[in-house]
Design goal:
This protein is of the alpha/beta class. It is built from 15 helices and nine strands. The chain has an eight-stranded parallel barrel, surrounded by five helices. Helix 8 packs parallel to helix 9 and helix 12 runs antiparallel to helix 15.
Length: 308
């Protein structure tokens, strides 16, 4: 099982909608890959329908440099969790992760993501359906609660009682989003819950972790945490899984690689690429003006002309 093959403390690139797609994962793998990748989350109801399956499979496409990689899925229909999980092993994944923590209002309105915290019985049913439908290890990513951090005292034990292969806890509530500092003060109690209820479950901490150095510092303080997940830190430094501080030229080379990949995956719309420009073009004279010009482009060829 992949979770037992990782050495503590392992590092993971957090699944981020519109960010951690097949192209960006290859860029990060080139810069310095984490121990484990996650996909963007895929709606199990999309996969379970003929109309939505093609789109779902596109989101689940992986490159050789992605492996080992975990497929993250979300939804609220237990039968659809079963149908999706049955297919994931054949697609080359090392595990499946259930998204019970996404704070996106559209996902929550549909009953998925963090909304699962408000329907715990349904969450358990979805987990059991997923686990019984695949030989892959099933893990969960969630938040402390919906509105109050103290909700973790009931919510996390409920999940741990199902003995997930791994449990990733974003140390904020859905209501808090990322507006407050992550609640690191709760890590000792969360460790205690894991140890008492499901000691075999790998515990991963997420929230405000910027790079490898910070993760190692946290592990020194909380040695029983198995892994750390970096999300927004990758926007500050795509080399965050290494000890390397990139030069401007290195960042520009990563941008050019990203442009090359966009041409390779020509079915993917160009517009979302613009969200990544700030990763590569920042903190040097003229960066703001260069980004402004790139934001006006409509194709990879136009972007290449500007950066050249």
């Amino acid at each position: 099982m992949i979770w037992n093959e990782l050495k503590k403390p392992f590092l993971i690139l957090a699944p981020m909608e519109g960010v951690t797609d097949i192209m960006f994962r290859q860029v990060i793998a080139h810069a310095g890959r984490p121990d484990l990748f996650f996909t963007e989350f895929t709606n199990v109801s999309s996969y379970a329908s003929e109309k939505g399956r093609e789109n779902a499979l596109e989101r689940l496409e992986i490159a050789p440099s992605d492996k080992p990689i975990i497929a993250q899925i979300w939804g609220k229909n237990p039968e659809h969790f079963s149908a999706t999980c049955q297919a994931l092993a054949s697609l080359g994944f090392s595990g499946v992760d259930l998204n019970f923590g996404c704070p996106d209002k559209h996902v929550n309105k549909a009953g998925g993501g963090a909304a699962m915290i408000k329907t715990p019985d349904l969450a358990v049913e979805c987990f059991r359906n997923a686990a019984s439908s695949t030989n892959l290890p099933v893990s969960v990513k969630t938040r402390l609660g919906w509105s109050q951090p103290e909700e973790y005292r009931e919510w996390l034990p409920l999940l741990l009682t199902e003995h997930p292969a791994a449990l990733t806890v974003h140390l904020r509530t859905k209501k808090e989003m990322s507006k407050v500092p992550a609640h690191y003060e709760l890590i000792p109690e969360i460790i205690k819950l894991r140890n008492e209820i499901s000691p075999e479950t790998k515990l991963i901490i997420n929230g405000d972790i910027k790079d490898r150095t910070q993760a190692l510092e946290l592990h020194t303080k909380y040695s029983e945490v198995d892994g750390f997940m970096i999300g927004r830190g990758v926007f500050q430094n795509p080399y965050c899984f290494t000890d390397h501080t990139p030069t401007r030229d290195e960042l520009m080379k990563l941008l050019k690689m990203h442009l090359d990949l966009y041409e390779e995956y020509s079915h993917i719309p160009y517009e979302p690429l613009k969200h990544f420009f700030k990763i590569y073009i920042n903190n040097f004279p003229g960066a703001k003006e260069l980004r402004a010009k790139l934001m006006e482009t409509h194709s990879v060829s136009e972007a290449r002309k500007i950066i050249s």
